[in-house]
Amino acid sequence: MSIRSVDSIERSVHKTNEWLKDLAAELGTEDRYAWRMLKAYLQVLRDELVVDEAAQLAAQLPLVLRGAFYEGFDPGHQSARLRDRDEFLARVAERAQLSDLGEAARAAEAATRVVQSHVTAGEFDDVLAELPREVREALVHG
Hints:
Elements: H1 3-27, H2 31-48, H3 51-58, H4 63-70, H5 85-96, H6 101-118, H7 121-129, H8 133-141
Helix pairs in contact: 1-2, 1-6, 2-4, 2-5, 2-6, 3-7, 5-6, 6-8
């Protein structure tokens, strides 16, 4: 493996740790919990996006997060589209192993702020446009 490849991996780990540090600070928790939350949030978002939009969002994620984003992804078998806020939060809670929708709401709002701060505004606007209005409003306005 070339030094350039190793540097690329190290930069990705560093950037991923920055995202996790930001989320842990938002949630007032530790990085391990933040990892679970961010991974679940990104995967639920991914499942709601058309494949092209998911790829555009993934292109702005650090390599490590991109791997988590695509983990278990089967573009030929996407789950039924969400209809409302509670369905979104229930999926986040299930994937992140949370006990209730309140905790999922808090985590999803914080993850939204972190993702929004690290990707281009135009890209995040495109992601939000793919979500039902009720979900979009819950993520952006709490």
